Amino acid sequence: MERRQLEYFVAVAEERSFTRAAHRERVAQPAVSAQIQRLERTVGQALLHRSAGQVRLTSAGEVLLPHARAALAALRDGQSAVDEVTGLLRGVVSIGTVTAHPVDIARLMAEFNADHPAIEMTVVADTSDVLVDKLADGRLDAAIVSIGVDESPPGLEYQVITDEAIEAAVAPRHVLARRKTLRLAELSDHRLISLPVGTGLRSRLDAACAAAGFRPHIAFEATSPVELVEMARYGLGVAILPQSMARDRTDLHAMHLAPELRGRLVWAWRRDLTSPAARRLCERARGMITSGVVAAPVS
Fold first, then answer.
1. pLDDT tens digits, residue range 111-144?
2. Can you list the positions of beta strands (E) in 98-189?
3. Domains in the chain, please, with CATH?
4. Which residue range or ranges hold the HTH lysR-type domain (predicted)?
5. By CB neighbour count within 10 A (0-12 exposed, 13-18 middle, 19+ buried), where does 278 fall?
6. Closest listed residue to residue 205, CA positions, set 189, 219, 187
7. Is the pTM of this model over 0.70?
């Protein structure tokens, strides 16, 4: 098996498209198809189901995919280790983030790039559940994710960025606007505004409601806490927000939830992280967080 064949195979598997894979690898589509065919001849099995507008992995492809990713990661780590020994640190570092967080990622990247201009960096945004999965299988080197205060994802190390209560917020004219505290069970009587399934905040909310014996009525969803604030401001329901956002607006009334819900934003990385470039970026990010070079918590 050749490195290029594995790279193209992983790209097609992740993109579910030869066209998108070719664009990602910056080559012509026939080149991707040819290398995949050679790989299939090498392993003696079809790796992809090809049909109009759709590409899916076969059983053999599903089995090969994690090994292909591991092999490519090992090659990258080997090159990085050699470069580090010779003082020519380079490579690619992939970072994931939730949609709203207080870390100045642009500053982090700019300062790191000034010291290590040969290192390429990519940033993607997604829900915490997806980002944790991508960390676990090596598609990301580090990520800003939301986890519960009693949660410790297996195989990951992390540094806490924020740790704060989750509260309810309503418009000033809402029926609950004079309340200071709201029992969690009372949420069952109201339309809620929340982040979508897969986000850390939503996971905390759903788990707490399940423990209280009911399923929350999520009337409106948005991918950003800022959008939740705006919907609550217009009276669409009870927004479930990080405390810092619930109490940062004069046009919203915030309420403590009882029992209290809490969530943490963390900078997470794999415990077995071997890439020198990724390790150095994580060290810089952790130093930045420890020194308080972040804005006020926003999620």
1. 999 988 888 899 999 999 999 999 988 889 999 9
2. 119-125, 142-148, 156-170, 181-183
3. 3-69 (1.10.10.10), 71-161+265-291 (3.40.190.10), 164-262 (3.40.190.290)
4. 1-58
5. buried
6. 187
7. no
